[in-house]
Input
Amino acid sequence: MEVEKNKKKRSVIRQLTTKLLTKIEASYSETDITIDEKLENLRDFSMQLAETLTEFKHLDSQIETDTSVDQLEHEIIQSQEYQEKAILWRGRLERFITPHTGNQRTKLLKAELFLKRK
Output
């Protein structure tokens, strides 16, 4: 019974993740907003995606523990295929956010140093 409950929960999380990935793709491609707005949106999405992936791993672990050996391969393949896209987007977000965040931090540090010299 617990397996079915976890599978249902995972199904709902998959649906919500699909919606989140659609929002991420749209925001990532957005050109009508400032880079700061884009970074803020993508950081928020990145945090949501990280939480979702953690929840997926937890549920998959529970489901795999309670699944018969005959169905185990199917469950593993199914969970891995779905998570691949989420992991791919998480990497893209990190590669986009990191260089921009580093530049902002550098600018802030330079501004602080400049103000301290005055």
